Amino acid sequence: MAGVFELKQTNNGQFMFTLKGENGEIVLTSQAYKTKANAEDGIASVRASAPIDARFERRKATDSEHYFVLKAANDQVIGRSELYVSASAVENGVASVQRNAPDAQTRDLTLGLAGAR
Q1: What pTM did the predictor assign?
Q2: Which pairs count as long-range contacts for 85-92, CB under 8 Å and 24+ apart, including other chains?
Q3: Could you tell me the domains of the chain?
């Protein structure tokens, strides 16, 4: 199974997306966006930024778990990973985003929802 972006509407009416890898696990989660169009622009930014390793910032959480963020060309964070137990697991997550994001289809889960645009 290829990777897929899932575009969703949050309980407070905003929009966000996740990127799932080939195994169906979430490898990247976006921030919340006020409009669906902005979230779609975020997906396009992930597709463009994912192949560029320098756009990934590897970080360590306060509890020693590891994660990464993906930044756009303007240095804004466009996605964050789940927490990982090791730096090597982070690298596997980065590789999954790099492999999946550029060609991932978008599954629009907002279709048919009241107020979705």
Answers
A1: 0.90
A2: 87/58, 90/58, 90/66
A3: 4-108 (2.30.29.80)
